[in-house]
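Duplicate of #3305? Posting structure anyway:
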């Protein structure tokens, strides 16, 4: 590291704080603070969506998987891209038309207010652990850059993200994510990828040096690919951090086309990470851990200035996911859990400064909690696996069922969340956190409970379904009964 590299990184970090301040000046309502006023165009929408889904796990972890398995190491990030493509093509337009702020509010709207609190707690736990795993990654990056102690690195990186997120909410995060998207694209795709391949002698030399399995598309194993699709592709369909970005789209077309562009970008990023990892295997065949591959090749193979930019790209990846997860966690904590416990209702338009201030306070509280948990926790992979297993095992069926199956009921949704979540927890305790069985059987149990209980209980009230249908279609709501008004108040 030289003075030029340090300057690039410090300027980048200072720029993030400056954009946070600028975003604060554009924020005058809850809609601005939580979903950037629902007015992002295709360029900003696609860039920020790509930024949030491609975090430290996709960058550092994706290169590590390439180091360990070769080109098939791309499958984890490919699964993320496929999930984003499916969300954008099949669901994003309808989700955007609902004009809600959280996944739990969608469930309230669809089922009549019977499942929001429990689903909110599950979603809060998921977004909290997602923010924690991203924050822990600061330790690795800041150690390479500045040689900082782990705790100091986590506190420094976490404090910067909490600061700009609390200042302007989603507007600040959108502006910083757009910069982070550009930095990642230049640093990883345009600089690190070609330099790594050239340093390794080109593809012919890489093929001659490594076993044939490193260039097999399924070298990582079919069961692993299947598990990645179950966890990450389906996780993209239902995560609050992803939905909250869908809510920022200006209209249906932006949500669909911008998300499709972001998903396609993810596929290219996946292949690039795997190739970089494969090149690192040729250059450094005896690294202590696969996840060291990214930092090692950046530190040893890149010229002055470029090294700083690529490390800034790694910081971009981590910060974009961390900030997105943090605002999602705070939004759920404030508007799905605390609002219900205190009897408060969130308005979907024209909020007061008190509501903005309340959301800002929850970002600060959740940010401090995330930093504290990150300092105490070491195993990132296990924490992320627990988060996704709980999310997909507990919430996938009620959410997709609500979007696709008219006969699904609130009782069925509650049963699905409870049975799926408990099955996942029990099997993680029995088979181990990283085992495949928890997500396989958790999803099956959740599906059976959802269908069986829905069929065994009274169908959802027709008036509630009418409000739901109109919101999905983007139509103005018809006058509704007092019962329906109470059922949809959470949305």
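Output from current build:
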């Amino acid at each position: 590291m030289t003075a030029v590299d340090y300057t690039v990184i410090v300027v980048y970090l200072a720029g993030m704080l400056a954009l946070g301040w600028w975003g604060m000046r554009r924020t005058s309502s809850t809609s601005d603070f939580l979903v950037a006023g629902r007015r992002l165009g295709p360029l900003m929408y696609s860039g920020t969506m790509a930024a949030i889904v491609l975090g430290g796990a996709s960058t550092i972890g994706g290169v590590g998987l390439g180091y360990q398995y070769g080109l098939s190491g791309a499958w984890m990030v490919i699964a993320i891209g496929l999930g984003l493509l499916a969300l954008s093509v099949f669901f994003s337009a309808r989700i955007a038309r609902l004009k809600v702020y959280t996944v739990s509010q969608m469930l309230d709207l669809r089922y009549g207010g019977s499942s929001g609190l429990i689903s909110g707690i599950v979603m809060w736990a998921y977004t909290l652990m997602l923010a924690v795993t991203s924050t822990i990654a600061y330790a690795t990056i800041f150690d390479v850059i500045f040689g900082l102690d782990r705790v100091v690195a986590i506190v420094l990186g976490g404090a910067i993200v909490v600061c700009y997120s609390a200042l302007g909410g989603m507007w600040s995060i959108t502006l910083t994510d757009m910069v982070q998207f550009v930095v990642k694209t230049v640093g990883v795709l345009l600089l690190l990828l070609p330099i790594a391949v050239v340093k390794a002698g080109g593809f012919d030399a890489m093929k001659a040096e490594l076993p044939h399995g490193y260039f097999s598309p399924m070298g990582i194993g079919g069961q692993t690919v299947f598990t990645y699709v179950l966890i990450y592709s389906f996780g993209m369909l239902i995560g609050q951090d992803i939905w909250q970005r869908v809510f920022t789209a200006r209209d249906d077309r932006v949500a669909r086309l911008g998300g499709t562009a972001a998903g396609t970008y993810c596929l290219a990023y996946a292949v690039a990470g795997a190739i970089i990892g494969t090149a690192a295997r040729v250059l450094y065949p005896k690294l202590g851990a696969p996840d060291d591959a990214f930092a090692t090749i950046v530190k040893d193979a890149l010229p002055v200035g470029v090294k700083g930019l690529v490390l800034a790209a790694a910081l971009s990846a981590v910060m974009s996911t961390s900030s997105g997860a943090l605002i999602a966690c705070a939004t759920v904590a404030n508007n799905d859990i605390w609002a219900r416990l205190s009897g408060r209702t969130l308005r979907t338009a024209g909020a007061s400064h008190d509501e903005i201030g309340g959301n800002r306070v929850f970002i600060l509280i959740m940010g401090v909690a995330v930093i504290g948990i990150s300092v105490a926790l070491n195993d990132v992979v296990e924490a992320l696996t627990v988060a996704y297993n709980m999310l997909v095992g507990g919430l996938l069926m009620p959410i997709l069922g609500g979007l696709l199956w008219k006969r699904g009921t609130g009782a069925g949704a509650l049963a699905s969340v409870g049975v799926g979540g408990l099955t996942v927890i029990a099997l993680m305790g029995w088979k181990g956190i990283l085992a495949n069985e928890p997500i396989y059987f958790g999803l099956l149990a959740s599906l059976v409970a959802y269908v069986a209980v829905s069929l065994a209980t009274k169908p959802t009230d027709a008036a509630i379904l009418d409000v739901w249908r109109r919101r999905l279609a983007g139509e103005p709501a018809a006058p509704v009964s007092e019962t329906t008004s109470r059922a949809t108040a959470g949305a």
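Confirmed duplicate; merging threads. The radius of gyration is 22 Å. Residues 348-353, 479-491 have pLDDT under 50 and may be disordered.
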